[in-house]
Every structure is written in C-alpha cells, then in structure tokens.
Structure to design on (574 residues):
C-alpha cells in the first residue's frame, strides 16, 4: 500500500493515520482495494487527495462534524485547542459520556484526529497535552470541499473591496449555517445578511480593528438563531444591549477586544454555556441568572465588585474570579466545578474561611490556580480533603510553604512561581507520593541551594527550573528521583550534582541559546545524545538520549551529560 502512494510524503502519512487503529484483515483489504481503484484512474498529483478522501470516508460519524468544522479556520492558522474544544461543545458535536465531562470527550476526539494525521500538533505543554494545532493546506481544502457539500458552511469570507463592493447582492446561500470572516469586519457588516436567517455560527479572524456599536446591531437583527459568536481580536468599544435577544446563544467569545463593559442584558442569555472575555473593568452581576453556564473565563478584571455565581450549578470551569468575589459565594453549591482559577488582591481574605471554601469542592475539584497580585500573600490553605485535586498552580507571595500533609494526596502536577520562599522547598515537596511534574519558576525560591534526599520524589518524571537567578546548586542524592525522565532549566550557572544516578533521564531541555555550548556539545566523542535547536525568541537546546542503551551505556551517557554541563558552567555567558 505504501508503494501505491507513489512516494508522496503526505499520502504516506495519511495512510499511516488511516491504518493506525486496530483493523481486521477484511478492513485492511478494503482500504487496499479502494486505493487501487482510485489510483488506477488518477495521476500522481491526485494521490494525496485520494488518500485524503479515504481518510475522510473512514472517519466515524462522531468525528466528521469536528473535521468539517476545521474548514472555518484560515489557512495555516494556529488554533488554540482550548478554544477549539469549547467551540465543538457549543456546536453540539459532543455527546455526554458516562462519568466523563464533555471537555474530556472533545480532547479524545482531537487526539483521534491527530493520530489520523488530519491535524498537526504545533505546541504541547510540559506534560504533553496539545496546546496549539493547525491543519495542512491539502487537508483544509478537503474539509472546505466536504463542508460545502453538506451545507455545513457558507463561503468563508475574505472581504475585498475590489471583489465585493458594498453594493454587491448577498453573498450567502439561505442554507448557510456557519460563516467565518477573515478580514474587514466593517465591510462584512455592510453586506446584506437577511438571506441567511438560519446562521448558527459566526467566527471572526483578524488582528484587530475598530468596530462601532452600530456594527454589532446587525448580528442580533439578522441572525436570530445564532449559537456561536466569536469576535476575538476585534476592537469593540461597546456591546449593544439587544445582544440579550440572542436566546439560542451558547458560546460568546470576546477575548482581546478591548471591551470594558458588558450590558446587563447578558443575563438574558439563559442557554449560554461559554463566556470567554478578559480585561473587563467589571463583570456585571447577572451571571447568576445564566444557570446553563459551564465554562466562564473572566480573567484580569480591573475592579473587584461582588459577583454572585453560586447559583450556576453546572459550572465546570471558572477562571478569573477574584479572591474577594470567591469567598462571598457558597462554594458547596458548585458541585460540578472541576477547574478553578482565583486571582487578584487577597490581603483581606481570612485564611480559615478561604481554606474552607476550597475544601467544600472536595467532590469535584481537579485543578486549582491561585494568582495573587501586588504584594498580597496567597492565603494558607489545606487541600488534603480534595481527593480529586491533581493539578495545583500557585503564583504569588507565600509566607511559607504548607506542610506536606496539607497538600492533596493525589497531586500529580505542581507549579510554583513568585512565591519568594526563603527556605528550601524540596524537603516538603519531595514527600508528595504521587507528584509526576514539578515546575519551579522565577521567584519561587530565593535561596542559593536546594537538596533532594535519597528517597525524595519517588514518582517524579518531569522537573522544570526556570529563571532562577540566585540558585547556585541542586544536590540530588543517590536514590532520589528514580523515574525522572525530563529535566528543563535555563541557567548554566546552577550546578546539578547527582545527574549520573538518574538512570531514566532521557531528555534535557536547556532554555538558553548558546553557540559556545553547542560547539562544546558537538565535540563530545562517541556521544550517546542527540541535539536539536529549540525555535523561538530565546531559543535553546533539546538534548535526547539514544534509545535502547544497556545499563552500562546509560551510565556512560549520564557521565557525558554531567561533564558537558560542568564545562558549560565555566563558560562566561553574557
């Protein structure tokens, strides 16, 4: 079957994706026969499109709408997966699974499309979750073709005054259900839209622009059954109060619009599931009316006015509520809340009260992010009563690190930043039994030394140390971190002792670009390591150990790595 791809790389990749799932002999033969039939008639250039067609035909019914939805995005556009998954949910592509949130289900759908090589990963998190993705040109062409066949979308609009003057008749079919605008929103607003009364989704893609309030009126007047409206990146001064008439709206995206106020009529959107906005002066205290809300993003509020949310009992993600707003709500009513981000000033927050408010989420909370502004300190809290809490991020001053027994027992990911701890945090953190990922970032610890004892971090796999200016050395005793696989840091001046005992260490990321260090690396004779450069503004080096090494070779490889880092520590980096 590979021979039939005529050496076309994308066709081979797609074939691999097509055959990646468990298939019977009959199913393999079916793919083989279909390929033979198509390729017998078509030339080499059509080979890729043949494989694409087969890949689409082979998609299960629940994945086809998700694939067609990709047709709405601009060519080579980098897609934030968080937004993509929420759009799929709002479109109704995802069915509720037993004991599994819809967000988790959409992530499974995304990974299936990635495994079939229909979506390309652009960026992953430190624990390998997909953060950004894109669609290749040929694949997007197929998505657009199939989407139009099924009346899934209308024309994706790149408004050009030479091609579409304002006097043009309507550009859209009355069957059009989804539209995306890639350019001038002002010109799009001037086009006649009354022929598309059943439009369900309107997505805007641009780097910005100024939009007057009158330009948004037409959305409510023309698109009465709109479910999804995303205007991210469009300059908006005001949202008209008639937006409250869009009673079918499920998704409202207004991130990075410069908008400072929302009308009180937003409380009339009783079917709204997702509100994504940031940098508001204040959030209107009407969210409590939107009882179907599931995903609420309101980061970086300028003012700290009261906000009632404890009636929104379907809420699963709450990101951006302030400390003072949070403690005024009865958190025990939020029985579905899985992910919580609290930010802002917290000097007036009483520690016991705050700790109790988190403990009341014991049946659902999985992820907690606390971010203190200015010089206020994060309130001390006990989280041991939250058995499902596996991810904890703390950014802000802490008077001291909480004791080991106050951490959630099943904590697997921990990030500390700007905590200004004066005592070495390792003696406490190393006793966390299920910790897999530890990220210590700028200002988390102000000391010069860190020590890990012989039994420390029994399950840790990923350790990240970034922007530590004062740290002189990290001492890892023999027997510590037995499962550490990935180490990431950005300061050669920090000496790491005990590397040669980390037998499972296979990957090192040095987030610091140095030509001298690369020259030193390439001088290593018979190296067991490979090096690739990390792209980006700051750059860096990604060093990976060869696979399949014996125990003796693994020890030699770690000695090579330790010697290399020791030599780098003597270099004079500017």
């Amino acid at each position: 079957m590979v021979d039939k791809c005529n050496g076309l790389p994308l066709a081979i990749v797609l074939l691999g994706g097509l055959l990646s799932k468990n298939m019977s002999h009959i199913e393999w033969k079916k793919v083989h026969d279909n390929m033979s039939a198509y390729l017998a008639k078509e030339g080499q250039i059509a080979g890729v499109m043949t494989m694409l067609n087969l890949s689409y035909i082979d998609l299960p019914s629940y994945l086809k709408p998700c694939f067609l939805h990709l047709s709405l995005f601009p060519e080579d556009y980098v897609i934030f997966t968080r937004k993509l998954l929420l759009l799929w949910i709002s479109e109704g592509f995802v069915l509720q699974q037993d004991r599994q949130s819809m967000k988790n289900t959409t992530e499974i759908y995304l990974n299936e499309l990635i495994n079939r090589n229909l979506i390309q990963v652009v960026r992953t998190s430190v624990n390998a979750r997909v953060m950004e993705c894109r669609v290749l040109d040929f694949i997007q062409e197929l998505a657009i073709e199939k989407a139009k066949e099924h009346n899934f979308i209308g024309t994706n609009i790149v408004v050009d005054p030479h091609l579409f003057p304002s006097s043009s008749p309507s550009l859209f079919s009355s069957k059009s259900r989804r539209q995306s605008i890639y350019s001038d929103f002002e010109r799009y607003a001037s086009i006649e839209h009354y022929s598309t009364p059943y439009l369900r989704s309107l997505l805007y893609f641009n780097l910005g622009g100024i939009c007057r309030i009158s330009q948004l009126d037409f959305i409510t007047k023309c698109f009465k059954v709109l479910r999804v409206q995303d205007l991210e990146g469009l300059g908006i001064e005001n949202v008209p109060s008639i937006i409250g008439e869009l009673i079918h709206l499920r998704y409202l995206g207004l991130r990075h619009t410069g908008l400072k106020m929302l009308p009180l009529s937003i409380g009339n959107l009783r079917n709204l599931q997702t509100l994504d906005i940031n940098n508001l002066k204040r959030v209107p205290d009407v969210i409590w009316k939107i009882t179907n809300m599931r995903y609420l993003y309101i980061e970086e509020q300028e003012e700290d006015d009261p906000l009632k949310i404890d009636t929104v009992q379907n809420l699963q993600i709450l990101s951006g509520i302030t400390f003072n707003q949070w403690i005024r709500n009865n958190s025990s009513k939020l029985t579905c809340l899985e992910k919580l981000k609290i930010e802002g000033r917290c000097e007036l927050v009483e520690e016991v009260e705050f700790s109790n408010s988190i403990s009341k989420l014991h049946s659902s909370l999985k992820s907690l992010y606390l971010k203190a502004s200015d010089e206020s300190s994060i309130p001390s809290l006990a989280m041991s009563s939250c058995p499902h809490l596996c991810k904890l991020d703390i950014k802000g001053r802490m008077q001291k690190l909480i004791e080991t027994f106050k951490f959630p027992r099943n904590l697997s990911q921990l990030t500390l930043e700007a905590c200004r701890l004066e005592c070495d945090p390792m003696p406490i953190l190393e006793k966390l039994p299920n910790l897999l990922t530890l990220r210590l970032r700028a200002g988390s610890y102000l000391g010069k030394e860190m020590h890990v004892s012989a039994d420390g971090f029994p399950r840790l796999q990923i350790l990240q140390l970034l922007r530590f200016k004062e740290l002189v050395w990290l001492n890892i005793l023999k027997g510590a971190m037995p499962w550490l696989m990935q180490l990431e840091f950005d300061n050669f001046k920090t000496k790491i002792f005990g590397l040669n005992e980390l037998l499972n260490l296979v990957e090192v990321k040095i987030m610091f670009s140095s030509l001298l260090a690369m020259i030193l690396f390439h001088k290593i004779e018979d190296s067991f390591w490979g090096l690739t450069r990390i792209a980006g503004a700051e750059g860096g080096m990604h060093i990976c150990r060869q696979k399949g090494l014996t125990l003796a070779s693994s020890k030699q490889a770690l000695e090579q790595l330790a010697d290399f880092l020791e030599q780098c520590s003597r270099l004079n980096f500017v």
